[in-house]
Amino acid sequence: MKKTLTILFLIQISLSVQAQKVPYEKLDSISAAISKLQFEANGLKYNDGKTDYEISFPDENFAVAFNSQLATNVVYKKSSNKELMYLTENISLGRVVGFTSEVMENNIVAWKINFGKFTVTTQIFEDGKLIDTTFKNEMILYSYINANKKATDPTFFNSFSELCNTMKRGIDMITDKELESENKDWSDKNIARADFVKKHPNSVRTMQAKNIIANKEKAKAEIAQKFVPIMEYASKYQFLWKPNMTEQEFKTYNGTIYQYKWMLYGNSTHTRDVGMPLSVIGYSPDGPNTYRINNLGKVSYFHVIYKRVKKEKEATRKFYEDAKKSVSNAENYFTVDGDSFTIAIPKSQNEPKEIEYYITTLITEIDKWSLINIIFHTDKSLK
Predict the structure, then answer these.
(1) What is the Cα 274 distance to its own chain's centre?
(2) Tens digits of per-residue pLDDT, 11-52?
(3) Which of 69, 218, 270, 340 is deepest in the core (most CB within 10 A)?
(4) CA dist., res. 329 & res. 342, Å (int)
(5) Sheet holding 138-144: strands in order across?
(6) 279 contact partners, CB below 8 Å, separation of at least 6
(7) pTM of the model
(8) Angle of helix 313-327 relative to helix 206-236, nearest 10 degrees?
(9) How many Å apart are CA 383 and CA 239, to the nearest integer?
(10) In sequence order, which ranges of 237-362 are alpha helices (DSSP H)?
(11) Which value, in Å, is the radius of gyration of the alpha carbons in the chain?
């Protein structure tokens, strides 16, 4: 059946081409690119929220019949050992209102094409027999995010929006001036998507622009949920250290530093001199333990014994586990390594991907002693 569909596509394309406002070569090139992008999702599985599907395509799965300027699309969907063919014909791409993307399982991207008040007809076949026909104002095309692409890869979006705009221009639904302005504003990185929406409300790109804006707002809300416990945790110990401090600023900020004698190891590591073998007093006293100066003259590492308890291992362990639980929903900002956990502190909620510093909390249990160690560091590694 799939070979038959390929032959039908070739017959359509080989039909005599009448005089068109849209050049044959341009439409052929763009529609072939879309067909190729769809085929990259061939044999992959996803769930549409109700049913598990495996989708597949013939090599030529999307094409425009140049005599009629109408498109055809075909996709096979297999579920529960039943494979159905969905054939959508006579698609007027000039009627496309807009389209949006949704990343599904296995990096499949579902592109929901919206036709507004118009409908497209899809025939559903099983074993070559027509079993159903649907009339909807939406159809779905597919692409795939492979190892060389990001979720924001613009290839499919650019190809399909160009095809729709070319068809709209061919039937005078958009002028050359309007299209030039739209293309320029979409590619201009200095123009926010919200401004694009206001300026081009009827663009086929506007629906995706709104989708991008909505996804960013959703992402901000999710980040905010993670951000609050992170910053609450950081603020508990902020009286000890801040990033980008010089040694003098660090000593002034943390007055207890002046109470202790420090020994310099190498060119950068300062360790507190406790005046006696560490084992005599339980390995280390409470308070500041070690700090390091980086090559910029900043305190880039600060280790504090925040809590040292004798014969109360269970209580100290509970303190540690409660602290870990308080930030465990921070996901990408939270990592666990044995008896330590690290949280990454973003520069700000508006710059969530830019990490300013890290806080590692470590529990150590030696003989009768339990210690809660807190380490501030600007390098991800503690080395």
Answers:
(1) 49
(2) 344 333 333 457 778 888 999 999 999 999 999 999 888 889
(3) 270
(4) 13
(5) 98-103, 108-114, 138-144
(6) none
(7) 0.65
(8) 160
(9) 24
(10) 247-253, 313-327
(11) 31
